Amino acid sequence: MRHFKILCTALFVLFSCSIFAQENTEPETQEVQQGHTNQNKFRQLNQVFATPNQYRTASGAPGPNYYQNTADYVMDIELNDKTQQLFGFETITYHNNSPNSLNYLWLQLDQNIRAKDSKSPMINGNGIPPVTTPDRFVSEYVKEPFDGGFNIEKVSKDGEPLSYTINQTMMRINMEEPLEPGESFEFSIKWWYNINNHVTNRGRSGYEYFEEDGNYAYVIAQFFPRMCVYNDVEGWQNHQFWGSGEFALPFGKYEVNITVPADHILDGTGVLQNREEVFSDKMMKRYEKAKKSFDKPVLIVTEEEAIEAEKGFSEEKKTWKFKAELVRDFAFTTSRKYIWDMMNVKVGDEDVMAVSLYAKEGNPLWGDYSTLAVAHTLKTYSDKTFVYPYPKAISVHAKNQGMEYPMICWNFGRPNEDGTYSDRTKFGMISVIIHEVGHNFFPMIVNSDERQWGWMDEGLNTFMQFLSEQQFGKKYPEAIAPHDNYPSRRGIPSKIVRYMKGDQEFIAPIMSNPQLVHQLGNNAYAKPATALNILRETVMGEELFDYAFKTYSQRWMFKHPTPEDFFRTMEDASGVDLDWYWRGWFYTTDYVDIGVKNVKSYTLTNNPTEEGKKLLARFGITDPETNPRTKDAVYVVEFDNGDKSMQMTDPLENAPKLKTYLMDNFSAEERAKMDVPNYFYEVVFEKPGGLVMPLIVEYTYEDGSTEKIKYPAQIWRKNDDQVSKSIASDKKITSIVVDPDLQTADVNLENNAWPKKKAANEFEKFKQKKNQG
Amino acid sequence: MKKLLFLLLFLTPLFSFNSAHKFYVSVTEIEYSPENDALQIIVRVFADDFQKLLQERYDLTIVLLEGKEIPETDRYIKTYFKEKFVVSLYGKNQPMDFIGKRYEKDLLVLYFEIAPVKEFSKITVQNQLLTELFDEQKNLVHVEHFGKTKSLLLTKNEPIGTINFKK
């Protein structure tokens, strides 16, 4: 048997050499060649990545000198529900844990994007429409602009005014003395602003007005001057808030007292400190019951009670007091319209409260699904990352919204006025809840810089959302019937094809700032989510991926990771070199297009072939038939060579010397166990697309059986355009298909099959179906 | 100048993006089929946006859900496309046949055909779909001809684009 193996090896050496020889028969009319830099797609990313240092290591973990500054806030907030104004007095204690002296501090004034003189809207190019409707004209040209933005009344330290400079959406505190490493600085800001209508003006925070009962529902966020992040990679994060790039925030402790009308229902980031003061006895009892309910939510405020509350307007005030630790932000919601439900979720060994607040306009949908979706998200995400570390997670119903803050998020999904709702509304609502609650993990806890890298939280979170949605479908099959799988919008490879094959002018690498791209939904959400899904399913395998992803999550929990920290950790913890994958999918706009170029079948012969002779001549053998070293050589010849005497089905008949060799060297018993393949093929695969991917091939044999082989991506390491594979088989191959299960987001299926199949034209398929009725 | 700035401020939607918020986008694929002498057009829009548009524009009872449509739905769609989606070849607007539509998760997929059509070197597309409802609406148009795909990104303020093709 050993001999036979050697023989076969020799045989295939000849075979592959002959192909090598073919490739070198190009006409030699080339001009003098120029040199080139290393463009190999498998070269490492060292020249692109920052050099590892004491803060961030080459393994992707925080280094021994990693630091982050923190900001603690004590705030008194008051809402005027009659004028829709918000007033605040905050005291910030900023801790400089960096090794550097800070000559000034930077704060973010995100509300200023709505100021009358805001420059943010001016960065979009536009023209003047030639014709418009009267009301549109009035609203666009005539009406007084909304008077938003912070009114900063006082910035002080120990009662003394501090010098400060406002630069659009940022404010600099001009320090008299630098803040030295290890020191803290405590100062206060008094402010107020007009709250915007988030339904008509859009925006991540604001109020919705309900004409029918005259009430407002507030979802309030980025509502106070917040510290910018200072760190080892950016210094002060100094990107203005232009609208698309979200937030970069340091962690800290919060103590927030919020005063609202006494008939409001309010919840926000953190643990409520004075529950007995603000809850009625009835609510307290229900709350105690909710703490023990693990399977379904318990109503703290019922729909009937909410409808009753809508009719009043209390002149009394109530103050709700919250404390939160290890959070990067604070947000709250308040309205007298709210229905409120809660249930307990066991996450690991922890009890977490899953909470929903919604006006009656959200029912019946919200009562049925919101809190369940929150609970499901906490469990599924915790499973893949770390145990959810906060005591609660709230989902608030706000029209058209989908926005996340620590422990609280706003979500869309409103039934029709008659209480009916479509599948689209239902799945839209469940998906957005999973997504926004999921943001607690990325970026609220794994605190990447959203303003620089939208994909780091949106992409990772959309990927996790896809996994969580699919699990939701398995857990609640009755909720997704008649679908077999949850109808996820993003994550499935074939869904990204339309984007990736698009005009290059309108697409950008994932590694782009959110403000600079044309299609942010595809760029920061769908493409990275799909890239990670493909990486998990098709490149690394679930086990290696999941371990590495969990490692990343836990390493950077409550810290500020950069893209490189993610890329490096995924490789470091899995033992899989992924530089080629990051380079292709994240740093370029290349796409996948892999196909079968041609297929040749071969058989064996003892008659020296021209190519065989040429090859042997290179080794000085010019008389192969008589030379003792090669007189028994077996040659490979293309089957369709016109020599009718050859029998494709029995190579031993074609190469009798191989037969006699076997008989001379092996016993009858040994020979019986041997399997001499009947068919030899050379398949040339081509790769017109720039992305490197594993080559997934399905071979179908004459008897209908199939075999799927996944050649590692490294198959392209020496030739990025095409690669040949020799195949020895007992059975005749009838078809070869590349990526048969659409796992790679291949943008062109026309070249994926041998023999060629015309990819069905979507248009004609539809038209045909239509015509058949 | 001051006035112009003032105008610009109001022409632009203030905030165009929320975290999992909707992106107002449609995607149109136009392909020339030499076998059929036809221009095959597939338009994908978000069904909820398009439903809202048809409701506000024509009839509040319109529902874009499989099995729940009112009988006039296709008529409204044809009327709307006639006004807001125009393809010109050889310097002339081309009448489009509405082939049909289907639902694909949260999308509505619409099929149109322009026939007979010969090879062309220039195509002009005017696409104002949904722009009267959403200021931020972006309409992407991909055109495939002679094996090449070229694209336009059309918006409320720039609703018309032309692509030149060479054989």
Give the tags.
heterodimer; A: 773 residues; alpha+beta; 8-stranded mixed β-sheet; 6-stranded mixed β-sheet; 21 helices; B: 167 residues; 4-stranded antiparallel β-sheet; 20% helix; 41% strand
Task: Order the strands across the largest sheet of chain A as they lie in space.
Answer: 5-4-8-2-1-14-18-16
Structural class of chain B: alpha+beta
Query: Could you tell me the radius of gyration of chain B in angstroms?
Result: 17 Å
Chain pair forming the biggest interface: A-B, 58 and 46 residues
Radius of gyration of chain A (CA) equals: 33 Å
| Structure class of chain A | alpha+beta
* Helical fraction of chain A: 25-40%
How many H/I helical runs of chain B? 3
Unreliable stretches of chain B: 1-19
- Tell me the distance between the termini of chain A: 63 Å
Total beta-strand segments of chain B = 10
Largest beta-sheet characterization of chain A: 8 strands, mixed
Oligomer: heterodimer
- Strands of chain A, total number: 32
Q: Which percent band covers the strand fraction of chain A?
A: 25-35%
What does this structure look like?
Chain A starts with a helix and ends with a helix. In chain A, a hairpin with a 4-residue loop joins strand 28 (695-701) and strand 29 (706-711). The model of chain A is unreliable at 1-25 (pLDDT under 50). With 773 residues, chain A is of the alpha+beta class. In chain A, helix 7 (365-384) packs across helix 10 and helix 10 crosses helix 13 (520-540). Chain A contains 21 helices and 32 strands. Chain B has 167 residues and is of the alpha+beta class. Chain B has 3 helices and 10 strands. Chain B has helices spanning 2-11, 47-57, 73-84, and strands at residues 25-33, 38-46, 85-89, 92-93, 97-104, 107-114, 122-127, 138-145, 148-155, 160-164. Chain B starts with a helix and ends with a strand. At the A-B interface, helix 2, strand 23, helix 8, helix 13 and helix 21 of A face helix 1, strand 1, strand 2, strand 5 and strand 8 of B.
